[in-house]
Design brief:
Number of domains: 2
Oligomer: single chain
CATH class of the largest domain: Alpha Beta
Shape: globular
Distance between the termini: 36 Å
Strand order of the largest sheet: 7-6-8-9-10-14-15
Number of strands: 15
Number of helices: 12
CATH topology of the largest domain: Rossmann fold
Strand content: 15-25%
Order of helices and strands: HEHEHEHEEHEHEHEHEHEHHHEEEEE
Radius of gyration: 21 Å
Length: 415
């Protein structure tokens, strides 16, 4: 993958001081000790409720490592990935992160999906002066000097999706059912969405908010309520349901004959990789908002998709060449290259030298041009809205004209 680099802003030290942190070398960034290898950590759930989403992120990180090693590695060292399975156990994420930084002395970690897992590991990375690349869209309201966020902030996913649903192309929806899994991301995301909807003139009575635990299956009662809520034809669902709970949720929609034309679901955590594990007849016509879709029609993206399929087949991974790419997969992939190029720019693996080299970096990712923010550790990205097809892919029905600047803190709620 080709990346074009530009100098960072050098403001990371100011950021660290503001947050009361330092970026001095620590146990997690001592990879310049010699030898012919540099270790990185891969911290994704391979079992449990989040394995449906996270396993592919492990796979694509290892694909990027294989590509980089085939071209000589980083600073003359081959990358040695240390893969661990936190098993969808949030406390275990923190334990595994500390082991990677202190015991394995990895130079960087690529991992986490849920915000609760990221929140659990954040103090571990700050304490041990490690570096985490987090590849999933999230609720914002965070900016750590030890994390780079390659997924979307709320203004790059949540707000454009809600705005689309209120537009003529989105059906001019006036009622919004906010449903999510009961943890940090859905609750904060919906606080932002609700504040935005209220500021846009939607009456509070037209906004419903509900949460269910990880792994929840019995959606019949709630879908009955949604059906009643949507009987006027002017309602939609904004879904922050995560993991394998999406399967029974969409199935219940189908069972109760609540079609997308009547009440579309706009999902923030369902992408192509989740769809390959679902019967797509339940999902046709429903929507999702992301910053990348496999359907992006460029030579570079087609090559990326083909490479991932070939990698999965060659390594006998489940699904083989039937595997798909999606937004978090792309973000996990280019994160490895951002780290590689920053190390080469800094001529070091030390976190305090690598971080400034990342800030402001411009690069070409599989889905197109992107850029790291000069100060806030997030990523400039385009916004896409897709409509689910019967084959489990998306028709792209909206694309932002330019890269959208990431806002780490939403203006719609208090910091």
């Amino acid at each position: 993958m080709k990346l074009n680099r530009m100098a960072g802003s050098g403001l990371v030290m100011a950021l660290a001081l503001v947050l009361g942190l330092t970026l001095m070398p620590g146990p997690g960034n001592t990879a310049d000790e010699g030898g012919d290898k540099v270790k990185i950590g891969v911290l994704h759930s391979l079992t449990g409720t989040m394995a449906i989403s996270e396993t592919s992120l492990r796979d694509v990180v290892l694909m990027a490592v294989e590509e980089i090693n085939a071209t000589g590695g980083v600073l003359g060292k081959k990358i040695d990935p240390v893969v661990v399975d936190p098993a969808s156990n949030w406390d275990l994420f923190a334990t595994k992160a500390e082991e990677l930084l202190v015991k394995d002395k990895v130079a960087a970690v690529f991992g986490c999906w849920t915000s609760i897992s990221r929140k659990k590991v954040l103090p571990v990375f700050e304490k041990n002066k490690g570096l985490l690349f987090y590849p999933v869209q999230y609720e914002g309201q965070e900016m750590s000097p030890n994390i780079f966020y390659t997924g979307a902030t709320p203004n790059q996913q949540l707000i454009p999706a809600a705005k689309f649903m209120m537009s003529d192309k989105g059906g001019e929806k006036k009622k919004f059912y906010l449903i999510g899994t009961d943890y940090v991301f859905p609750r904060t995301a919906n606080a932002i969405l609700k504040a935005y909807l209220l500021a846009s003139g939607v009456p509070e009575k037209n906004i419903v908010e509900e949460y269910y635990p990880f792994g929840f299956k019995d959606y019949a009662p709630v879908v009955t309520k949604i059906k009643e809520f949507a009987k006027g034809g002017d309602a939609c669902v904004l879904s922050t349901i995560n993991g394998d709970s999406n399967v029974p949720f969409y199935q219940e929609f189908w069972k109760q004959e609540l079609k997308a034309e009547k009440c579309p679901i706009m999902a923030f955590s369902v992408a192509e990789d989740e769809l390959r594990n679902m019967e797509t007849k339940y999902l046709v016509g429903h929507l999702a908002a992301w910053n990348y879709f496999q359907a992006i029609d460029t030579k570079e993206n087609k090559e990326f998709v083909a490479k991932f399929k070939a990698y999965c087949k060659k390594n006998n991974l489940p699904g083989g060449d039937k595997r798909v790419t999606d937004d978090p997969i792309e973000a996990a992939y280019f994160g490895v290259y951002v780290w590689k190029n920053a190390c080469e720019k800094a001529k070091s693996f030390d976190v305090d030298k690598v971080v400034p080299a990342i800030l402001g970096m411009k690069f070409d990712a599989p889905g197109g041009k992107k850029m790291m923010h000069a100060t806030n550790h997030h990523t400039f990205k385009k916004v896409y809205i897709g409509e689910i097809r019967a084959d489990g892919q998306f028709d792209i029905i909206y694309m932002s004209p330019e890269l959208v600047e990431p806002e780490a803190f939403s203006k719609y709620i208090k910091k």
